[in-house]
Each structure stands twice: as C-alpha cells, then as structure tokens.
Amino acid sequence: MADVGAKSPRERFREQVRGEIKQHAWEQIGTAGAAALSLNAIAKQVGMSGPALYRYFASRDELITELIRDAYRSLADSVRAALDSGADVAGLANTVRE
C-alpha cells in the first residue's frame, strides 16, 4: 500500500527550490540587510528569471514572512532541545541569546 503522506516528485522539487530561495535570501540579508533583499538577484542565483520566482513566493513580503517564521521555529526548537536536555533558567537564557 502506498504511503498516503508521501510527496510527489513535483512537491519535493518545489520544496527544494523554495529552500534554495530562502537560503539565498538569508545570505543577502546577512550581507546587506533585509531592506536590500532583491528577488531578482535571488532568482539569478537560483538560475531562473525574476518572474519565475513568483511561482514559489507571491511577493517579497511573503518570502520575508516565511523567513521570520522559520527563524522563530528554529528558536523554539533550540529552546525545546535545551529544556529537554535539562537546562536551567540560565541555560535557557543562553540558548535564546545564541
């Protein structure tokens, strides 16, 4: 019996491209700040045209929102892992600060 939750090759490819786009966006933000984020530059880095990028993210704001969500999920996962490993309040504070 096929796995009902299995993703199609197209869905996996879409997730991979979205991940690459987000990776390049983080690199741009790290270098020049969020104000300088350029979808056209990201599209070129990924090997597509600017308009083609809009198939993956409807707007620059949507991409930034997704990056913010990812950052908060990562923070929550880190705090949860520290808590699960027995960290005290100071340890949790250090985790958040890192």
Question: Can you describe what's shown?
Answer:
The protein has five helices and no strands. It has about 100 residues and is mainly α. Helix 1 crosses helix 2 and helix 4 packs antiparallel against helix 5 (about 90-95). The longest helix has 25 residues, at about 60-85. It is flat, with a radius of gyration of 17 Å. About 5% of the residues are buried. The mean pLDDT is about 90.
- Tally of helical segments: 5
Tell me the series of helices and strands, N- to C-terminal. Answer: HHHHH
| Cα separation of the termini | 45 Å
- Helicity, as a percent range: over 70%
| Poorly predicted tracts of residues | none
**Strand portion:** under 5%
Helix and strand arrangement:
Blueprint: H1 9-32, H2 39-46, H3 50-53, H4 60-84, H5 89-97
Task: Provide a compact summary of the structure.
Helix content is 71%, strand content 0%. The chain is mostly helical and 98 residues long.
